[in-house]
Structures are given as C-alpha cells and as structure tokens.
Amino acid sequence: MKHYQMSESIPVGLLLAVSGGMLNAYTYLNRGQVFATMETGNLILLGINLSRGRLDLVLHYLLPVLAFAAGILVTELIRRRLGPSANRLHWRQPLLLTECLVLVLVSLLPLGTLDPLANALISFIAAIQVESFRSIHGNACATTMCTGNLRSGTEHLFRALAGPEHSQSGRKSLFYYGLIGCFITGVVISSLLSPGFGGRAVLAACLPMLAAFGLMFRESDPA
Q1: Alpha-helix residue ranges (DSSP H) falling in the chain
Q2: pTM of the full predicted structure?
Q3: CA 107/CA 118 separation, integer angstroms
Q4: CATH number for the 3-222 domain, one of 1.10.10, 3.40.50, 1.20.1250, 2.40.160?
C-alpha cells in the first residue's frame, strides 16, 4: 500500500479547500469585491476598468495579482531552502501558521480605506497555499480555486463511465468534486458570518487551517 505525507492527504486538502472558499467570499463581500485567492477574476475586472479609463480601479485589482505572484516566489524560495524537514515540523506547517498570523492582522484592519492592503495580504498567503499544497494523493489540484478541479473531476468521471479499465477514476472524480463541495461550504460559512462580524469574519478561515496543521503531525496517510 502506497503512503503519502500527511500534508498531501485528502483530509488536509479538503480542510484547505474550505478555507480557500472562506477567503474568497470574505474579500468579495467585505473588501471591495476582490477575488483574493483566484486571480483570473481580478485580471478580467482589471481589463474592463482599463478599457474604461478607471486607473484607480485598475490599481485596485492589480495589487492582489502582484501580491499573489510575490507569494509564489517566496514559497518557492522557502521550499528550496528547507526541503523535506528533518525535525518534527514539515516545511509546510510553518507556512500554515504564517497564513493564520496574517489573517489575524487582516482582521485588525478597518474596512474601507485599508481594503487594498487586506486584499494584498490575503492574495499573498493564498499564493503560499496554492504553491505549497499542489498535490493530494498524487493528484494535482488547487485548494483556493475550482476551475482546474472541475476539469479534472469531470475528466475522471468520463473515464469512470467509459469502462472498467479506469477503476481509479471514480474515486478521483469524487475527490475533485469533494474539493469543490468543500470550497462552496467555505463560501457559505463566510457569507453567513460576514453580516455579523464584518472584517473579523476572516478569522474563521484559521480554524480549518489549524485543523490541517494538527493533522500534519501524523506520519503518513495510506492511499
């Protein structure tokens, strides 16, 4: 039986998908309708406002894109410097704690004038999560966006229906659709919390991250 490091386990992936959905809904609902964890939407809105000559809004949507790119660069630097951890902490665990600390900082920023800073910070840590958790049980995936997961899940669904020679495709399809379901669950939770908690609603995203952090102390996860 093949074993995977717990940072690549299905429970960790599902928990991080919940947090990804929560962060996207949070920034859209509370921080100026920005998609902080998936930059395609921001690039579309950037282009629309560029065509209209709204340079102030171009910058509004450009900042999270640049912060996301910076997060990828920083994560790759950390991954190459640390590599597989020799001590009890896996290299991905300190990154999860960093994400939580940044979210605490974001929760302290008032709504309104500091929204661009809040969005940039969340985009930065979203990039860390995307780049650090790129594979679950050997399957490439994302925990902060759904387009690639939808493509992969539907592709494996087709293979599962095509014939018995693709015996693993059914399970893989369920996994990808499970990620999407968890992402939507996070969106729903954040949407319910936002009216009552406003800027502090972002703290709820720390809970699935901390749960994933705790799970990663287990040594391995069987396939």
Answers
A1: 10-30, 39-51, 55-82, 92-108, 115-132, 147-162, 169-197, 206-215
A2: 0.90
A3: 8
A4: 1.20.1250
